[in-house]
């Protein structure tokens, strides 16, 4: 039976930041489940960078079914966790069921990959204090307020935590995460 990976997300997550790791990890032979606040078809978004804008733009993205509701997740069944970005982390960080899931992964030092605005979730459970991370660059003050050392680079590895800035950094992010997974939880 292949090792299982959990992706936690919700509506308004960045399409590429959910679907790229989902497909890449399945390609490696992992069983991947997507959990959200409820079992439903999630509506993702596309964040793009356009000339003349001071920040990214947002457009409707793909839809995808959640396999599980957060309340149905048994964190002990999963070898690793992926936390995509987009706007979803802004509201998900307040979900008590998700906070329990996140805490279980950090308490047991299992591999966690977070990208873009995903570190807002790990900051909300005080799991970044004393760690090195990256995130979407606009989150640098948030990461520092959470007690993390911020690095503006493609991927930062701190123990079993791998963080990345945004979808353009996917190759470096997954390359580093897979190095850890191949050691800690081979497919």
TrEMBL record:
Note the InterPro entries from the entry. Answer: C56_PfpI-like, Class_I_gatase-like, DJ-1/PfpI
Protein's UniProt keywords contain Cytoplasm:
no
Q: Where is the DJ-1/PfpI domain?
A: 4-179
GO MF annotations in UniProt: peptidase activity
**Looking at the record's lineage, which domain of life comes first?**
Bacteria
Biological process, per Gene Ontology: proteolysis
Keywords per UniProt: Hydrolase, Protease
Q: Protease among the record's keywords?
A: yes
**SUPFAM superfamilies per the UniProt record, alphabetical:** Class I glutamine amidotransferase-like
Indicate the family of this protein.
Belongs to the peptidase C56 family.
Indicate what this protein is called per its UniProt record: Protease
What is the source species? Streptomyces lucensis JCM 4490
């Amino acid at each position: 039976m292949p090792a299982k990976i959990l992706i936690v997300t919700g509506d308004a997550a960045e399409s590429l930041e959910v679907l790229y790791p989902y497909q890449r990890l399945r390609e490696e032979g992992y069983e991947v489940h997507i959990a959200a606040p409820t079992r439903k078809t999630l509506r993702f978004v596309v964040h793009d960078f356009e000339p003349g804008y001071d920040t990214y733009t947002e457009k409707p993205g793909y839809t995808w079914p959640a396999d599980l509701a957060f309340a149905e997740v048994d964190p002990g069944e999963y070898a690793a966790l992926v936390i995509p970005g987009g706007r979803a982390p802004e509201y998900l960080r307040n979900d008590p069921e998700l906070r329990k899931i996140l805490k279980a992964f950090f308490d047991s030092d299992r591999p966690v990959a977070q990208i873009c605005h995903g570190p807002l979730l790990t900051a909300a459970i005080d799991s970044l204090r004393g760690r090195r991370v990256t995130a979407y660059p606009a989150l640098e003050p948030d990461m520092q307020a959470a007690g993390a050392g911020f690095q503006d680079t493609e991927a930062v590895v701190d123990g079993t935590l791998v963080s990345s800035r945004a979808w353009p950094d996917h190759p470096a992010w997954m390359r580093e995460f897979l190095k850890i997974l191949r050691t800690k939880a081979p497919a």
